[in-house]
Amino acid sequence: MIKSFFVLSILLLSPAILANAPAVKLTSFISAGSRTTAAEACGKASGITSLTIIKLTVDGNSSRPGTYNVVVDKDGPFCATVITNDGLVEASINGIPASKINLE
Fold first, then answer.
1. DSSP letters of 41-74?
2. Which domains does the chain have, with CATH numbers?
3. Which range has highest mean pLDDT (4-8, 12-16, 29-33)?
4. CB 33 within 8 A of CB 49
């Protein structure tokens, strides 16, 4: 009986816990110009309650990927200027890959 109650409690609470889990979504990745490798990566973090570090990996499939750390507050929006050759950025939060976007 107690075991069944415990399993049922976990099943009922899991969606609520997952709904508040930290997440990050990249919203744009735009080149700074036609003659530069600079670009701006923007996104929004959700489910965070304090300062959190978002890790941006640029050109992750290349032989020389770039890594940028962005600190976000509980509001969550962020932008970072990065250097890219392949036009791909990935975002992760707490070491969990979360979002990927190609250069627009």
1. EEEEEES--S-EEEEEEESTTSSS-EEEEEEE-T
2. 22-102 (2.60.40.10)
3. 29-33
4. no
